[in-house]
Amino acid sequence: MLAALPYRAVPRFAVHPFALLLLALLAAGCMPQDIPPPFDRAPQAQVEKGRQLLAQYQCGSCHVIPDVQAARGRMGPTLASFGRRSYIAGHVPNGPEHLARWIVSPRSLVPGTLMPAMGVSPDDARDMAAYLLALE
Q: In terms of CATH architecture, what is 40-134?
């Protein structure tokens, strides 16, 4: 019966990666105090540095990014509420390691993507990822 429904009528569920980690740890007998904080809880100094780096690398020429100066681009998707997204570019699970790698070399994760490599260092990418993951 479900196969007879139109594609958009089939329910789609997205699970936050942290929720999966929590379930796995609880199933393994870990107590909540043993569980690390969510990845989107980077230190405020790192988040602020990431915001500044997004402006420095001119990410806003293609994207709308909240609280980043001159970030009103329309070529790429808006990055508002990025921390709530389950996937990067619709293909890669969203998380700090994948996002930092995406920022450094997007085509290594999604061949053919229109997102260019902007010469971002891995350290800068981690800070930029911290800012984006803090956007809710």
A: Sandwich (2.60)
For residues 76 and 82, what is the distance between their CA atoms, to the nearest angstrom?
Answer: 13
Neighbours of 124 (CB within 10 A): 21
Distance linking the first and last C-alpha atoms of the chain = 37
Q: Are 93 and 16 in contact (CB under 8 A)?
A: no
Q: Coil, strand or helix: which one is 75?
A: coil
Kindly compute the dihedral angle of the four CA atoms of residues 105, 110, 111, 112, in this order, to the nearest 10 degrees: -100
The better pLDDT of the pair 76, 8 is held by 76
pTM (predicted TM-score): 0.71
Average pLDDT over residues 14-31: 63
Distance (Å) of CA 135 to CA 40, 53, 65, 78, 106:
9, 15, 9, 11, 20
Between CA 86 and CA 15 the distance in angstroms is 7
